[in-house]
C-alpha cells in the first residue's frame, strides 16, 4: 500500500492536476475547436456575402424578394456572428487557460448554442435548397439575365451547408466537453 502524498503546510491538493503532456493535449483539443469555429465563420460569412450581393440590376431578381433566401442570409449572418464570438472565447481559453464564463456555464453555453445554431443553419439551407430547386423549373432561372442569380444562390446555399458541417463538428466536440464535465467535474477529458 502506498503512503498518501505529503503536502507542505498551506498547500491544497488540486483536484485537476495536469502534467505537460496533458496540457499539450488540451491545447491541441482547444485548437481543433478553434479551427472548426474559424472554418464555420468563414463559410457562413461567405454564404451571407454571396446572398447579399446576389442582385445584378433591375431586370434580375433580387434575393430579398424571396423568403427562403432571406432566411438563408439571416441564418448565415447569425451563425457568422456567433462563430466570431466563439472564436474570441476559444482564443481567450487557449491563451489564458481559463473560461470567459464560469466553467459549468461555459460548457453548457457552448453546447446549447452550437446545437441551436447548427439546426438553424440546417433548416435555412434546406429551405434555400428546396426553393432554388423550385426556381430552376420556372422562367426566373431560364432567362439569360437571371441565370447568374440562380447560380449565385446555389453557391450561397452550398457555402451555408459547409458552414453547418463545421459547426456540427464543433458541436460534437462541445458535446464531448459536456460529457467530460458531467463525468469528471471538468471540461477536460484527461
UniProtKB/TrEMBL annotation:
Q: Name one Pfam family in it.
A: CASP_dom
The answer to keyword Ribosomal protein applying to this record is no
Q: Which residues form a coiled coil?
A: none
Q: Which domain of life is it from?
A: Eukaryota
Residue intervals passing through the bilayer: 32-52, 64-85, 161-183
Where the record annotates domain Casparian strip membrane protein, the positions are 29-166
| Keyword set includes Aminoacyl-tRNA synthetase | no
Localisation: Cell membrane
Predominant localisation class:
membrane
Q: Which UniProt keywords apply?
A: Cell membrane, Membrane, Transmembrane, Transmembrane helix
Q: What InterPro entries has UniProt attached to this entry?
A: CASP_dom
Q: How would you describe this protein's topology in the membrane?
A: Multi-pass membrane protein
State how it assembles: Homodimer and heterodimers.
PANTHER family per the UniProt record, alphabetical: CASP-LIKE PROTEIN 4A4 (PTHR33573), CASP-LIKE PROTEIN 4C1 (PTHR33573:SF56)
Family, as annotated: Belongs to the Casparian strip membrane proteins (CASP) family.
Q: What is this protein called?
A: CASP-like protein
Amino acid at each position: 500500500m502506498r503512503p498518501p502524498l505529503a503536502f507542505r503546510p498551506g498547500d491544497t491538493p488540486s483536484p485537476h492536476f495536469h502534467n505537460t503532456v496533458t496540457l499539450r493535449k488540451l491545447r491541441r483539443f482547444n485548437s481543433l475547436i478553434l479551427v472548426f469555429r474559424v472554418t464555420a465563420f468563414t463559410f457562413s460569412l461567405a454564404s451571407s456575402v454571396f446572398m447579399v450581393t446576389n442582385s445584378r440590376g433591375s431586370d434580375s431578381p433580387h434575393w430579398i424578394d424571396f423568403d427562403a433566401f432571406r432566411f438563408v442570409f439571416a441564418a448565415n449572418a447569425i451563425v457568422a456572428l456567433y462563430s466570431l464570438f466563439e472564436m474570441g472565447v476559444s482564443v481567450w481559453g487557449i491563451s489564458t487557460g481559463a473560461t470567459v464564463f464560469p466553467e459549468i456555464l461555459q460548457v453548457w453555453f457552448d453546447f446549447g448554442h452550437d446545437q441551436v445554431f447548427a439546426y438553424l443553419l440546417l433548416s435555412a439551407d434546406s429551405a434555400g435548397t428546396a426553393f432554388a430547386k423550385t426556381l430552376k423549373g420556372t422562367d426566373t432561372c431560364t432567362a439569360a439575365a437571371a441565370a447568374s442569380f440562380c447560380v449565385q444562390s446555389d453557391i450561397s446555399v452550398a457555402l451555408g451547408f459547409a458552414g453547418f458541417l463545421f459547426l456540427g463538428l464543433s458541436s460534437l466536440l462541445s458535446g464531448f466537453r459536456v460529457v467530460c464535465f458531467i463525468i469528471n467535474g471538468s471540461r477536460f477529458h484527461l
